[in-house]
Write a structure and sequence with these properties.
The complex is a heterodimer. Chain A has twelve helices and twelve strands. Chain A is α/β, with parallel strands linked by helices. Chain A folds into two domains: 145 residues, D-Maltodextrin-Binding Protein, domain 2, CATH 3.40.190; 99 residues, Periplasmic binding protein-like II (D-Maltodextrin-Binding Protein, domain 2), CATH 3.40.190.10. The longest helix of chain A has 17 residues. Chain B is mostly helical. Classes of the chains: A alpha/beta, B mainly alpha. Chains A and B meet through helix 3, strand 8 and helix 8 of A and helix 3 and helix 10 of B.
Chain lengths: 258, 229
């Protein structure tokens, strides 16, 4: 490469970060990974504010924020993690009716997912009762909101004790989905957002677990109190709760709250 | 530590012991082949044996999950042979750990064998030593320190292994829930007091085990390269 080009590149790399406006840093629960990117793109088109999202398990993001991770807003997959941050004095919901309660922006739906080429019956509550179901993948019930919901649903069906030895526990729902998609597990209790991704839509079918079988998976958002971009965060929250975006969430497998 | 943690601790020790034994059986001949053999393909062999270090462990675990699963002929063959699928079982973790820790067994041995004086190797060859004799009487005794390093690194790397186990294991108590998984769960569940205890015991016992291994090898002169071993 000619020297001049190298110098120009170096100059660009040094100067570029100084010119760019600091983006809004969004800590987002892993189940939002298939949902959020187009919404953030629309947000940038509508407001000119560039938002960058980091997708992780809600528990992991909570630990990171507790230890000073530079996020501006935290979209959790449940209410317990944002509540924990509010109790620690690290986050708030200022601007809403009650600044000490996370704002619920959507509700999650639990589904039973199975590969289409499985030799077992199609996904249904009967599949969960079938002795032919040898391995059922769930997310870790100690911390993954969908794992908690999965265990609650099995308990409501009086199947938890029967199925417990046949459960394989994944770190999060996307890993649980991989256990099933690679055919190592027969079926999995995962999020509707995962089941609606192109890959899983192509490979399998799902059954929506009746909502009265588990406590609602309310997904809450909080503002990280240290943020220097509070106005921009509020714009993002208003955007998320606006009817068109809520309708879009519904298409991706989340239940709107408005 | 609770009974559950001790179960996990015993499982980690068993996994590391079995893995280290299998790794030695694979890595000594492989390293000897790389050092003694001729031909360009040996460079490819050495590169392949180092490759597991490049992949993020969870990704390696994911590939193994797919490879060993019932969707490949290989996975179906192994399942038929063993009578059960490899994923989510102790045997599956052994396969994963052997691949994951392979570079940590092969690299020290290659370095050790390569540093043995070629005059000695040539002399042994002239005296009619075959490859097995060459390895067992010349290379291994003269590269004792590298052998020790390979054993220690393989063992510790397997005890601390996390991503592959997370992906391939399914967190089943007594079968695939190793101590590093327990420790990770404790941290993730905000149970820092328990995590501190588990980590302290893990670190304490590792230092203790290493001290024993190194003191034995000092006494036997392994580290000085003496002839009394």
């Amino acid at each position: 490469m000619p020297k001049r080009i190298v110098h120009a590149l170096l100059a660009f790399l040094l100067v570029a970060p100084l010119c760019a406006q600091t983006p809004l840093r969004v800590a987002a629960a892993a189940d939002l990974e298939p949902v959020l990117p187009p919404i953030l793109d629309e947000f940038q088109r509508a407001t000119g504010i560039h938002a960058e999202a980091t997708y992780q398990a809600s528990a992991m993001l909570t630990t990171q924020i507790q230890n000073g991770a530079p996020f501006d807003v935290f979209l959790s997959a449940d209410l317990s993690f944002p509540k924990r941050l509010i109790e620690d004095g690290l986050a708030d919901a200022a601007g809403s009716a009650d600044s000490t309660t996370p704002i619920t922006y959507a509700k999650g739906a639990l589904v039973l997912w199975e590969r289409s080429d499985s030799h077992l019956p199609p996904p249904s509550l009967d599949l969960l009762r079938s002795p032919a179901l040898k391995r059922l993948a769930i997310a870790n019930p100690d911390r993954a909101p969908y794992g908690r919901a999965a265990v609650a649903a099995l308990q409501s069906l009086n199947l938890y004790d029967t199925l417990k030895p046949r459960l394989v526990t994944a770190e999060n729902i996307s890993q649980a989905a991989q256990f099933v998609d690679s055919a190592n597990a027969d079926a999995g209790l995962i999020s509707l957002t995962s089941a609606l991704t192109p890959r899983l839509t192509a490979d399998g079918t799902y059954f929506v677990i009746p909502r009265d079988l588990y406590p609602p998976i309310e997904q809450g958002v909080v503002i990280v109190s240290n943020t220097k971009q509070r106005a921009a965060v509020h714009k993002l929250l208003d955007f998320l709760l606006s009817p068109p975006v809520q309708a879009e969430l519904a298409k991706s497998g989340l239940t709107p709250v408005k | 530590m609770s009974a559950m943690d001790w179960q996990a601790f015993a499982l980690s020790l068993r996994l590391a012991t079995v893995t280290t034994a299998i790794l030695l059986a694979i890595a000594v001949p492989l390293a000897a082949l790389i050092v003694l053999g001729r031909g360009r393909w040996l460079a490819a062999v050495e590169a392949l044996a180092t490759l597991p270090m490049v992949l993020p462990p969870t990704v390696l675990g994911f590939f193994l999950l797919v490879l060993l699963g019932p969707r490949t002929a290989f996975g179906r063959g192994i399942a038929a042979l063993l009578g059960h699928p490899l994923a989510f079982s102790f045997d599956g973790l052994v396969v994963g750990s052997v691949i994951y820790s392979l570079p940590f067994a092969v690299q020290p041995l290659v370095a050790g064998f390569a540093s043995v004086d070629t005059a000695l190797v040539d002399a042994a060859r002239l005296l009619g030593a075959g490859p097995i004799r060459l390895v067992s009487s010349i290379l291994v005794p003269l590269a004792r320190r590298s052998l020790l390093a390979a054993v220690v690194l393989s063992f510790l790397h397997t005890v601390g292994e996390f991503g592959v186990v997370l992906m391939l294991g399914g967190d089943i108590p007594g079968a695939t829930r190793t101590l590093s998984i327990v420790l990770y769960n404790q941290v993730e569940n905000f149970d820092y007091a328990a995590a501190d205890r588990t980590a302290a015991i893990l670190l304490g016992l590792s230092v203790f085990a290493l001290a024993i291994i190194y003191s034995i090898s000092h006494k036997r002169g392994v580290l000085r390269g003496g002839r009394d071993a």
